[in-house]
Amino acid sequence: MSSDRTDLAHLSPGGRLVPAAIFALSVSALAAALIAQYGFGLAPCQLCIWQRWPYAAAALFGFAAALGPFSRPARMTLVAATGLAFATGAGIAGYHAGVEYGWWAGLPGCSGDALSPDVSVDDLQAALSGQDRVVPCDEPAFVFAGLSMAGWNFVLSLLLTAGTFWALVTRRAG
C-alpha cells in the first residue's frame, strides 16, 4: 500500500504548489508592468520590454507544470526552466539598472540621443512629429526607495531565481 502512495505522490497538491506559485508570481509581475504602462502612463523602453519575456516564459512553464499531465521529474524540469528564465530576467534587469545608473552604455539608439551621428533627417522628423518616439533606457521612469523599476525587477528576479532553485534542491518543486 505504501508503494501505491509513493507512486501517486506526484499527483498531490503539494507537488504542484511551487509551479502554481511561479505562475501566479510571473503573471503578477507582468500585470504590474502593464498597469504601470497603461494605468500610469510609464512608457517602457526596449530593455523594459525585454524584461517581460522571462516572466512570460516562466508563467508558461509554471502553468504547464502546475496543470499538465507530467511526471514529477518532468515537472521539476519545467520548474528548473523557470529558474533559468528568472535568472535571465535578473541579467536583463541588472544590465538595465546599470545603464540607468550610468555604470555602462546602453543599447544603440536606446539613449534617446537624437543628435547621434547615426540619426537621419527622417529619424529627426519622425521624432519631432511624435512618431516612433524612442523611450530612453538610461532614464528611469519611476524610482522608489532609491531603486528604479529595473533595479526592483533585478531584486525580484534574483529572489525568484533563488526561491525556485531552493525548491528544486529541497525537492519541494514538481
Automatic annotation (TrEMBL):
It comes from the Bacteria. The chain crosses the membrane at residues 20-40, 52-70, 77-97, 150-169. It is a multi-pass membrane protein. Gene3D superfamilies: DsbB-like. The keyword S-adenosyl-L-methionine does not apply. InterPro entries: DiS_bond_form_DsbB/BdbC, DsbB-like_sf, Uncharacterised_DsbB. Keywords: Membrane, Transmembrane, Transmembrane helix. Pfam families: DsbB. It is found in: Membrane. This is Disulfide bond formation protein B. It comes from Rhodovibrio sodomensis.
